[in-house]
Amino acid sequence: MIRVEDLVFDYPGFRALDGVSFAVEPHSITALVGPNGAGKTTLLNCMAGLALPAAGRVQLDQIDVHRTPREAHARMGYLSDFFGLYSELSVQRCLDYRARAQGIPSDRRAAAVQRAAERLGLADRLKQRAGELSRGLRQRLAIAQAIVHEPAVILLDEPASGLDPEARFGLAAVLRGLKDEGMTLIVSSHILAELEDYSTHLLVLEQGRILDYHALDGAPAPNAARRFELQLVEPRADLAAVLTAAGLGDVRIEGRLAHFTMAGDAAVQAALLRRLIEAGLPVAGFAATKADLQDAYLALLKDSRARASAAPHVNGTKIQAPAPAGPVP
User: Considering only CA atoms, which of 271, 279, 250 is closest in space to residue 262?
Assistant: First the structure.
């Protein structure tokens, strides 16, 4: 669907993207996350053909986004983190204006406007002026403008910024609906709990490089370590010692609750539970816990920074890998 290859982008004296490569699966929602300054917005701008990289390329269905941007834009929708609407225009006229800009023929324009309004729950607001809409409805209108031409790929930069919890919940339902209709979405956000509600993939960017990219809904490997929670009837002072002696990792005690990691299938888990009960622990509950998006993200950053701090030093100076060559504008 969309492929990024060895993308490099430089600001004066600063490399924002450093050899970024990945391919987005069709009909998916990819959560693009990373610390401030990681390069998320720059990456989206490059993918949308709005910023020219120093090296690398972006392809959308075999279309080179930077060589033939008009052809790519016909297949792509984009919403920046700071968007503008014509406040004096009605919702209908805003969508009609965007449909005209996208080259939708006049005989199909009214249907395209109606379809986009229905998708974003704005069908009953078509006559209302954009400036009279709430923050959440203006966000919906901006997304409706981005999809009025039925794009295959949608790039959204912080779409939930400034929305209240109810509006965020509604936006998540809208994005899931667009995916179910066959669109592919890439969404940048700092609200990890919100991304978890609808994302199928996680793409982590740090210091202009891909830290991790994986599917969120895949089953774990059979021998992969997983996190578990053990609940006791009452606290036990020796709980940590018992769990550590059983060979469990990353043991953390919170009163009657214990969290730890272990690898193995259901038989291994059953054997562990039997061993804990035989050790006299008053077990009230034992189950695997689902690692949420925030846990996965923070663990990745922690591991990356630990590896960076362990890099070799010479005379007190850390040895850095040389940055790929590329012109600085």
Answer: 250
The helix-helix angle for 91-101 and 135-147 (nearest 10°) equals 30
Q: What is the Cα Rg of the chain in Å?
A: 24
Q: Which domains does the chain have, with CATH numbers?
A: 2-215 (3.40.50.300), 226-288 (3.30.70)
Global pTM reads 0.73
Q: Which residue has the tokens 């699966």?
A: 25
Quick one: pLDDT at residue 38? 92
Question: Could you tell me the pLDDT band of residue 247, with boundaries at 50, 70 and 90?
Answer: confident
Q: What is the pLDDT of residues 205-230, one digit of tens each?
A: 999 999 889 888 655 555 567 788 99
Look at residue 221 in the predicted model and tell me its pLDDT.
52
